[in-house]
Amino acid sequence: MEDHTTLTRRAAIAAVAGLTLAASAAEAQERHPKIGAAIRALEAAKADLQRAKHDFGGHREDAVRACDNALEQLRIAERYQGGR
What we know:
mainly alpha; 2 domains; 3 helices
């Protein structure tokens, strides 16, 4: 027969595993996965633009501003629940 400490430890491990699986399932069922992917890609592109040692032929500021505008619109679209 298992002692109380072993049972408590197993229960804690099971709880953590369950929470991890639930979080993974929620992420996998993202409401608009392509919009989420676009947001992450734009955030990465914006970071690259900002870290670059050059200004992309004078286009860096406009490109960063365009990323910000696109991110704002995508986040609005992502929150949209439908309806008319």
